[in-house]
Amino acid sequence: MSLKRDWTSGELRLIGISIIIAVACLTSVNFFTDRVQRATEQQATELLAADLVLISSQKINPDVIKQATDAKLIFSLNESFRSVVLKDDKLELTEVKAVDSNYPIRGHLKISDSLFGKERIINSIPESGTVWVDSRLLQVLQIELGDFINLGASKLIVSKVLTYEPDRGGDLFNIAPRLLMNRNDLDATGLILPGSRIQYRLLLGGNAEAITQYREEIEKNQGDNKNLSIQSIKDARPELKSAIERAEQFLGLAALVSIALAGLAIAMSAQRYATRHYDNCAIMRCLGLQQKQITKIYLYQLLILGLLCSLIGCAFGYIAQEGLNRLLIGMTQTSLPAPSLFPLLSGILAGLITVMAFALPQLIRLRTVSPLRVLRRDITPLPLNNYVIYIIAVLALIFLSPWQSGSIKMTMNTLLGLCITACVLAMTAKLMLRLLKRLQPKLKMSARYGLANVTRRSNQSTVQIIGIGIGITVMILLTLIRTDLLENWKSRLPDNAPNYFLVNIQPNQVNDIRTLLANSLNENIPLYPMIRGRLIKINDEAVNIDNYSNPRAKRLASREFNLSYAEIMQEDNKLTSGSWWTEDSKQSNSNNNYFSVEEGIAETLGINIGDELTYSIAGQEVHGNVTNFRWVEWDSFNVNFFVVSNPEALIPYPSTFISSFYLPDSDRQILIDLVKQFPSITIIDLDAILNQIRTIMQQVIRAVEFVFGFTLLTGLIVLFAALQSTHDERTNEAALMSALGASRKQIISGLVAEFLFLGLITGILSAVAASIIELVLAEFVFKIDIAINPLIWIIAPVACCLIIVITGLSGTRKVLRTPPMIVLRKI
Amino acid sequence: MSQNIIVQAAALGKQVISPEGQLTILKDINLSIKQGESLAVIGVSGSGKSTLLGLLAGLDTATSGKVTLDGTDLSQLDEDGRARIRAQSIGFVFQSFHLLPSLTALENTSLPLELADIDHAEQLAQQKLEEVGLAERIHHYPNQLSGGEQQRVAIARAFSGDPKILFADEPTGNLDQKTAKHIIDLLFKMNKENGATLVVVTHDNEIADRCDRKVIIAGGQLTEA
Ligand SMILES: Nc1ncnc2c1ncn2[C@@H]1O[C@H](COP(=O)(O)OP(=O)(O)OP(=O)(O)O)[C@@H](O)[C@H]1O
Ligand SMILES: [Mg+2]
User: Fold this and answer.
1) In CA terms, which of A3, A45, A430, A449 is 20 to 30 Å from A220?
2) How far apart are CA A53 and CA A64, in angstroms?
3) What tens digit of pLDDT does each residue of A746-785 get?
4) Could you give the ipTM of this predicted complex?
5) Contact A378 B143 (CB under 8 A)
6) Do B147 and A376 make contact, defined as CB atoms within 8 angstroms?
7) B47 CA to middle of ligand 1, Å?
């Protein structure tokens, strides 16, 4: 009943509206993020050629297939294995894939009708008796289209050049040439024998719910079926993995930001509500209510309000994300599953937690209102110990955030950043206010009055500065990170990212090829030596697959590495610990070999700086010490190596060279020249894969942009609402000023001055804070290089001033419309 | 019009729209106040005293009739025009003091002077504060002053611009008797020294008796006592 009265009198309305906006913002970002994530994943399913892929080293269990048909999923079976392909007297180890007519379930095959000819999409698979092979095999075996090749016991016709299979994953440099054949011809080859190493794959497609359900069932039974593994998108295309992960982190950050903003708005309006209720409480206390009863009244009120408004907010959030979803159509070909009810529930819960954490401390303050206030209005309750407010708020954020952002590490970093920000903001704000106060007597009347308001309400101003400051900070932060991410992604895959690799270059061809490339491309293309070796010992311990539990470690331990040597570190690598070798360091410790190891692989294999690694290279053992770790940007298509040594260490061993470069479509003739002049080298065509990755990246970027814009917009609305809550006092003061003879112009310029000072301080502090958090996040979470943009120091204060002045003045219309008569009525 | 009439209300009426329909607070009020005169407005609570004061001072607009203040018809002016008149010729003292909390006693006192663009505002304000006996406390903020002291600042502020007319709405309503007497003495003393016209709304007979003239509002109408 008092809820209704307070609502109609407009006092609770502000808190309520803040909750609605906050929860709507939160749920719609959640809903939307959820959908964007799914859309991105769905996009990426093309990389699997299916929605879900099961891989096994044995024939796929018919039960598993039956389960799939029962669930009304489309499926396609394929086998892949390595086998030797013969043409006349030449032979080559080839990666063979036998597919059925449902392949691929997602994405398309692309072929061309001549070597390095024009590529086109094809919606069928090789007819029985024919195979499609990639340009590499054509080059190596010198096959013409229409020629026969021998595969096992079969003779098959090469009918097309295979340029693109959606699910051609794996390591780009280690793969053998590829051959695609019809599954019906498989038995005739006689290659499927017990004991042959064959990868059986079951590709599945269907609507997301059926797939998820199916996947869960398979996972449940996986215990009985040890050699069945589920392949996820992230395994399919390592180059995309970090991009998708970063996009997910960003969306998480956006959700985090919306919580912080929501809390902020609620705290600010709760403070206003509490201030307006001092008198009520004083009267109630006079009438004999106990502190406990007062707390109870407000607690119930807040709970009911929180629940109601969270519900309404959720409804709005749902509508908003539905609208956004419309915008996203076109990003995915198939429709997204309807959002589940879970975000609704979590929205309500998050709403309630936020309300309790941010509003309750303010309201609890009300219990301490002294009944004496009835006699002396200027007695305000003891300010709640500020630390308590902050601690409760931070705890709530800690509780809510990982759940919202899905990343504990990022949450902690951001929160740490925010805490430091709040402290720094508080201290600097106080300092700046004190300094500005010195300036005060020198100013004109309205500026002086404005500044007086800012400095005099020092405590309130500090709170406002911190509040608005944090709001603006997170928005600037989001902008900065978004820009960094996009820049980063664009620079990773520039239009001239290398689209061709040359491998198998013999040492004696290096100079000629370098000259040829330099002449035809007008730039110096680096050629890197590549030596194959197997890691056999770390210090004195033999490297054994069984020592590792992690599958990636097992894989790495079992296969040959591509090693390289270099005098200086590759430009796009970053030293993360230890130091690179120099002439001096080599001389001081002559007759020694050094290794530089990529940090990820070092961690997986348990390698430390100073360890001695032993490689087996061409039957000989090579020892060397690890002197540094490197960070490598695998997103880029530059040639990169896990392990690099100093030149002295590996020069004696047999090597080939490798290079990558960008070649526009129009210059493909150069490739033909290269093949003719150097028949033994192999050209790997990455154009198709690059385009595939670009398309997906663009969609990820679009999603990030959407969520970014959306969060920013809601952030502005929330800030706007929060700022409005400080208008009460100004309305009264403006009426008084008017009664004392101030013209509108004088009143407005006083207000503008106040807002300008507030905006300036807030803006400068926010720019500092956002830059600091950005540095922290970029360094520890997103792992990207950033350049602090000096413009931010101008943009942030200007933006802050604008936001604060505009929202401030939008409220002054009401201020100016209020007749000065209220000074005779209000006490 | 006679030279020494400073405030004149002619057929003044005020109606407001209330939830129960149209409510007439004041009707057909005719009142002339002479320069230098002191006038007490008395009446029971809710009779419309504050409303009348607001109309006379140009804080509110009348529904009918007109107010002439120092020779200017207030109904001809817009909000800014009335503000200018207030800055030039009017001082206020309110029941609840109404000092700006963000300004010191001195700044509060000099504010009307600065709004009217008068030179040496600070010296003049300081002088007024000395006159009300607050020389020691000019740099204090309102929340550092007692109610009586705040009202003294309000009086200093009201007189700072040497107004022709001073409007006071129950200036002692929030004060204890002793302080109230002190404030009233001060108000009358300052009024005499400044040669201003004083219009004071009050419940207090003692104050009313000290005025040159008394009017009573009842039933929306005004009668001379
Ligand atoms: N805007 C308004 N809407 C409705 N009623 C109003 C409005 N303004 C004033 N009133 C009514 O007009 C009447 C006169 O109000 P006013 O404040 O002038 O009385 P007052 O004589 O000053 O009383 P008090 O001695 O208690 O201060 C009251 O009944 C009040 O409720
Ligand atoms: Mg009154």
Assistant:
1) A45
2) 12
3) 888 888 888 888 888 888 878 887 777 777 777 766 666 6
4) 0.87
5) yes
6) yes
7) 7
Beta partners for residue A527, in sequence order? none
Q: What is the largest CA-CA distance in chain B?
A: 52
**B contacts of A825 (beta carbons < 8 Å):** 50
| Three-point CA angle B216, B222, B224, nearest 5° | 60
Instruction: Give the domain extent around B154.
Output: 5-224
Number of domains observed in the structure of chain A:
3
Which residue puts its alpha carbon closest to atom 28 of ligand 1?
B46
CA B169 / ligand 2 centre spacing (Å): 7
CA dihedral (A55, A59, A60, A61) in degrees, to 10, reads -140
Q: pLDDT digits over A16-39, tens only? A: 777 787 777 777 767 766 666 666
- Whether the model clears a pTM of 0.80, i.e. scores above it, the answer is no
Boundary residue ending a domain (A685, A709, A734): A685
Ligand 1, atom nearest to B25 Cα: 12
Contact: A741, B101; criterion CB under 8 Å: no
Domain end point (choices A188, A205, A235): A235
Residues A481 and A332 in one domain: yes
Q: Quote the ligand 1 centre to B26 CA distance (angstroms).
A: 10
Counting every residue, how long is chain B? 225
Nearest ligand 1 atom to alpha carbon B48: 18
Please enumerate in sequence order all residues whose Cβ is within 8 A of that of A217, keeping only pairs 6 or more positions apart, or say none: A67
CA distance B212 to chain A (A): 24
Torsion of the alpha carbons at A712, A713, A714 and A720, rounded to the nearest 10: 100
Q: Which of A455, A733, A824 sits opposite B169 (nearest CB)?
A: A824
State chain A's mean pLDDT as an integer: 77
Does residue A392 share a domain with residue A247? yes
Is A824 in Cβ contact with B102 (below 8 Å)?
A: no
Could you give the CA distance from residue A278 to residue A374 in angstroms, rounded to a whole number? Answer: 9
Q: Which domain holds residue A630?
A: 500-685
B204 lies within 8 A of chain A by CB? no
- Helix or strand (DSSP H, E) at A261: helix A238-286
Residue A423 has pLDDT above 70, yes or no: yes
Q: Show the tokens assigned to B218.
A: 């009842």
- Report, in angstroms and rounded to the nearest whole number, the Rg of chain A calculated over CA atoms: 34
Res A487 pLDDT > 80: no
